[in-house]
Amino acid sequence: MSQNWLTLFWVLPAVGGLVVLLGRQGRWPALAFSVATALYGLFLLGPASMGAWHVPAAASPSWAFGISYALDCDGLSLSLCWLTAFLTLACFIASWNKDFSPGYWAAFLFLESALLGVFLARDLFLFFVFWEAVLIPMFFIIGLWGMEGRRHAAMKFFLFTFFGSIFLLLGSIALVTRAHAATGVWTWDIAALKGPGGTAGLAIFAAMALGFAVKIPLVPLHTWLPDAHTEAPAAGSVMLAGVLLKMGVYGFLRILWPVFPQLSLELMPWLMILAGINVVYGALCAMAQKDLKRLIAYSSVAHLGFCLLGILSRTPEGLLGGSLQLLNHGITTGTLFLLVGFLYDRGHRRGLDDYGELYNRAPWLTFFFGFATMASVGLPGLNGFVGEFMSLIGVARAMRGFVLIGVVGVTLSAAYALPAFQAVFLGPAGKASVSGKVTDLDVREASLLWVLCGAMLAIGLYPAPLLRILEPFLLGLVPVR
Q1: Three-state SS for 20?
Q2: Which of 119, 186, 468, 479 is deepest in the core (most CB within 10 A)?
Q3: In this structure, are residues 126 and 70 in contact, taking their beta carbons and an 8 Å threshold?
Q4: How many Cβ atoms sit within 10 Å of the Cβ of residue 400?
Q5: Is the separation of the CB atoms in 293 and 418 below 8 Å?
Q6: CB of 354 within 8 A of CB of 432?
Q7: Global confidence as pTM
């Protein structure tokens, strides 16, 4: 019974995608299915928080080689499903006045369905199927409805993520076959798999970590991200930064930590070095950008490194802070990409030097951009501060030397975000400025931004309910030291 209810969660947007694709109207059916999925996610809160959706692996239908249809839902899964559902709805509202074909709206619903499947799957094979399914709609969203360089960006996105998927698949097969050799039982159940030790365990861990690292993305596997963000439509960038980048970190939490508990601890210093490089390199690259979308894209590289730092600490504060920051980044960066999209719709430019003095012409656009920027740099009272602060405490408890990297990252985030905001909204307009074309937000756009910024404020002031939802699964990953 529970499995059926969870199945409905990812099937609902998939059915919506088919309805939209086969019908003549795209906008209204897409909105209806998106609203229904978001409300259904809220409905699942009560039962999920009481463990009512937990399904024993033995109760799941299984096929050849131990592959089974196993779904489950805990606080981490549910919170990421909420993020997926509400950002999809936000994308539809933001795209409402655009004349897109039904395929556009359907692609987002198929993407939502695959993402929900990733976060609900508890069978490694099923997880990989959903993981790959995410690639297809996002490829078309970038390649068909993006900017001038969309085809190159879409192909680059496809090749990089497909490359990572090959290693993820090889590592998964090796993990399952080694488990079968040790126990005589075929199973892809993530909770039942135990990674082997020695060189074989290290090789399997490295292959799967590489697959997840491409999606995060970790430096130097990040080069697909700025191009994909720059060329994708604004709503595509929202889903890319808001949810897709979280899949890699989720893979570490859901699969690598439980399957390789000891090895992941032994490799913690090396992985922290990689995460630290992400934090500093992403921030330095963001400082050098003159395009707003590329600047936000590189800031995502830095922020995801920060999330990984917290999670790698394997302390209660670090795990909770890093996971909370995943959600915060999805809301905040998603909002920033929406705002850049609204700005581009009016001025048809994204350069820092293309605007200036917008605060007079577009006060609400200035207010919301400033609000989201403050959340992004971690201003106390907003959501970014809570996640970053908890992550730093966790890192300090595990490996104190890496706190300095975190502090440098926080400082650099202000160094690229605030000057960019000043140049576009507060600074003088240059001779080539197109600020004269920019009008303020309409009611639809402003209403959407009130909701998103309200979420940033609510999490910043009172994160306890969300942390309570995340705790049960994450605290189980804390090792006995």
Answers
A1: helix
A2: 119
A3: yes
A4: 9
A5: no
A6: yes
A7: 0.94
